[in-house]
Amino acid sequence: MNVLPSSDEGISVRGLTKSYGDHRVVDDLSFDVAPGQVTGFLGPNGAGKSTTLQMVLGLASPDSGTATIHGRRLPEHTEPGRVAGAFLGVEHMLPGLTARGHLNWIATATGTATARIDEMLELVDLTRARSRRISQLSLGMRQRLGIAAALLTDPEVLILDEPLNGLDPAGITWLRSLLTDFANTGRTVLLSSHLLREMELVAHHVIIIRDGLLIADDPLDVLRRESSTRVRVQGENLAPLLDHLQAEGISVDTDGWGTHATISGREPGEIFGLCVRLGVELTGLAAEERGLEDTFLGLTDTSDDQHGHTPRQAMQGARP
Amino acid sequence: MTTTPPTAPNSPSAPSSPIASRPRWAGAEWAKFRDLRRPRQLLIVTLALGVVTAVLLVLTIPATRGTPLSETSTEDVLSASVLGVDAAAAVLVVLAAWFAGVEFRTGAITEALLRARSRSSMVTAKALVIAAAAAVTALITAVAVTIVGGILAGTVAGADWSEVLAAAGSRDHLRLAFGSTLLPVVFSVLAVFGAIGFRSVAGGVLTPLALLAGSMIAGWLPEGPASVLRPLLPLGGVHNISGVAEAGGTEHIGAVPAFAVLVIWVAGGALFAAWRLRRQDF
User: Is the complex ipTM more than 0.90?
Assistant: First the structure.
């Protein structure tokens, strides 16, 4: 889990809980989103991502717990628009407004200089479509307009809900560059998605939830490492190899007899070389590709519950 | 597509904010109102409907009152024409309900809520914009229907033009026209509060409609309860200000108390809308 700096920058969620009727949508959720990096907020559809973001943005009240941005609830800031910019989906725009009109009312409401409107339209390549009604824009154009609106006030924190929907590959590349540059100025980016494949291209850190519960909160590199190739080995006596790996702190699953083992975090070539050096005779060596997407699906698959995993245990369980 | 990175402050500790002035929520609502096509279309419909209704009401006087136009007084012709503003009021109420309610229907309200420090300021801003638009449109419509009524009185009814001018400028006619202008303003603002309070266009339309129906039902009650209820409803307030409520009638309480009644309705509506907006999740 991230550790927030003492300046209270970024987003802090503590014990956040929200129910609609009997259905608990968000369940005692706690995490931090640190500045200076792009944090992905992942989970399958219905996991509680949007509800969590709504509570972070002050649009919904939690039953219990807190969600603060820069140390306070967003509506408690003197200028909420200066603190956080958000994009919650293309449906949250008045379809009858023009692209420029949409940015114009937000600029007026937040006291933003009007010159910034044209700057943002240019940034998202909508200058030529500025007079077109939102209803006449393509999904991708509306996505970009929504992102322009979120950036209009040059906020310290950017929160985007499924911003990659409708963007073509060039658009995703553009957004990745934009968000990375934004985060590199020391500001905070939190974006949600239900697709790890897309998030993988943009995020540095991921928070994964399922059924409103925290499943994982790790740098993407860690998740990637956990998901990378595993090596299965067979031999009459693997003990020297296993002792060596365990001494190095490398995770190994064995069958208990010392004849079969699954090793994580090492390439097949490395294991083979190690066996040669240690004089371990192998009868079999095979790479087992798992993949990041498989890891994500494994983490968010509700059938894990059948194995009695608690949410955080699910992450541990995914780690060999 | 451009790949220009977003404009960012040179250093996080010394950001150069593009926020140059104080938030202006009324200005933001006005910007929306101006940019949308629907308000412009409905404002034109308002004016056209007011004038057409005025013409129809004047020309059907022989059928509705059993008196030929030539024998109808200029004052009666003018007062019939001013009823065109009441027809226009219906369109203005729909416009108000749509303007405030469409954001709830589409979810666009969240764009405003996440940038607002106080949700009640948004209620006030929407009400102010609608009140201003309704007042200007109703005033233009009142002038237009008075001109139409005057032309019909001078031509079809054969009244003397100096008599027409005198009647149009008389205290009674001006009071009636003012009251008729006030009706769409008050009911449009109440429609805004209804749309926000009930988070829908339908809620915005039905709120003033329910209050009008309440006035009608109160009129059917025995004199005792009617004289208590009718003046306390918004329509009663407008009727007292416009002079439609006759002295001695169950609706009459005088212009000043009636004005207070309207202020209480508008303030109460604003409080209701702000309370509902504050306590709801989006």
Answer: no
